[in-house]
Backbone:
């Protein structure tokens, strides 16, 4: 009888773990960002450059790709090299900004240096994260020159998805 009870407990625990993993996968891979395509982006927000100066998002004349990420976020770390390659390829056409969230300043600089990120890396305050509805990481928005969100994605991006999105503003 005791063996049956132990077996039942193990199976129940396994079922809960599987359920938790499925829910986590759905949230991180299919959760739509809250800012909808077609609305005006909150470009009046300011980020903080790594040197401590303010970075106004409404100062850019080119389309803007803003990616919210964190140093502790594994999908973010997988995505950063993809963004870096695209930033190099489209350096004269699109402004790329990485907005680090909930990460230590030294860790952000270390990640930037270790991955060779040569696009704008900044820090986002909790207020900016809330305004952009970027609580789920990574979250990426593409904003056209009129300040309209033309594409939004929450979760890990593939290179193909990113290319399709960039084509939207490059046409």
Residues:
């Amino acid at each position: 009888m005791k063996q049956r009870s132990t077996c039942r407990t193990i199976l129940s625990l396994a079922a809960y773990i599987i359920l938790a993993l499925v829910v986590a996968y759905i949230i991180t891979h299919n959760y739509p960002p809250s800012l909808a395509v077609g609305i005006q982006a909150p470009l009046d927000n300011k980020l903080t450059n790594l040197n401590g100066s303010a970075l106004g998002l409404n100062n850019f004349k080119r389309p803007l790709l803003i990616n919210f990420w964190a140093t502790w976020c594994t999908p973010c770390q997988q995505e950063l090299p993809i963004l870096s390659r695209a930033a190099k390829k489209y350096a004269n056409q699109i402004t790329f900004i990485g907005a680090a969230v909930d990460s230590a300043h030294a860790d952000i600089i270390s990640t930037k240096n270790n991955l060779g990120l040569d696009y704008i890396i900044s820090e986002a305050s909790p207020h900016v994260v809330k305004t952009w509805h970027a609580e789920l990481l990574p979250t990426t928005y593409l904003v056209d020159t009129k300040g309209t969100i033309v594409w939004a994605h929450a979760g890990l991006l593939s290179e193909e998805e990113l290319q399709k999105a960039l084509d939207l503003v490059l046409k």
Q: What stands out?
A: Helices lie at 2-30, 74-89, 105-115, 126-131, 159-170. The mean pLDDT is 89. The first strand starts at residue 46 and ends at 49. The CA atoms of residues 109 and 131 lie 24 Å apart.
